[in-house]
Structure formats: structure tokens, C-alpha cells
Design goal:
Layout lengths: L1 E5 L7 H13 L5 E5 L9 H20 L5
Parallel strand pairs: 1-2
């Protein structure tokens, strides 16, 4: 599971992602949580966008490389 959240999100309170992260960790779900300072609901700063897409791409590359068990 991959979570991204802007710290200045006015649509979804930041604490919601913190609670989600904690619940997933408690259930043993592999999860990574990235926060973006100054960002609203969806990163806008160019450096944050680059970082988000790099992490996102790496995450999906790794997930798709895993055997499916079929």
C-alpha cells in the first residue's frame, strides 16, 4: 500500500492518512506513507510531483514484478 498526503489538504484532514497508516501497520499490511509539506489535495510543486511519480513508478514496477502465485 502506498499513501501520499499533502499536509495542507483541506478536503481530507491529514490526520485521516495518519490513522489509515497506523491501522494498516497494525494489521501487518506493507505500507509506505509520504507526506508533502505545503501541499493541498494533490501535489502542485514541481519537485514534489517529480518525487511522487518516481516513487509511484518504482512502487508499481516492484509490485508488478512479484509473482502472482497462479
Amino acid at each position: 500500500m502506498l499513501i501520499f498526503h499533502g499536509e495542507n489538504d483541506t478536503r481530507v484532514p491529514f490526520v485521516n492518512s495518519q490513522i489509515l497508516y497506523r491501522a494498516l501497520v497494525d494489521k501487518g499490511v506493507p505500507v509506505t506513507f509520504w507526506t508533502f509539506p505545503r501541499e493541498p489535495h494533490g501535489p502542485q510543486e514541481p519537485a514534489h510531483l517529480v518525487h511522487l511519480f518516481e516513487v509511484w513508478t518504482s512502487f508499481f514496477d516492484a509490485e508488478l514484478a512479484k509473482p502472482t502465485g497462479r
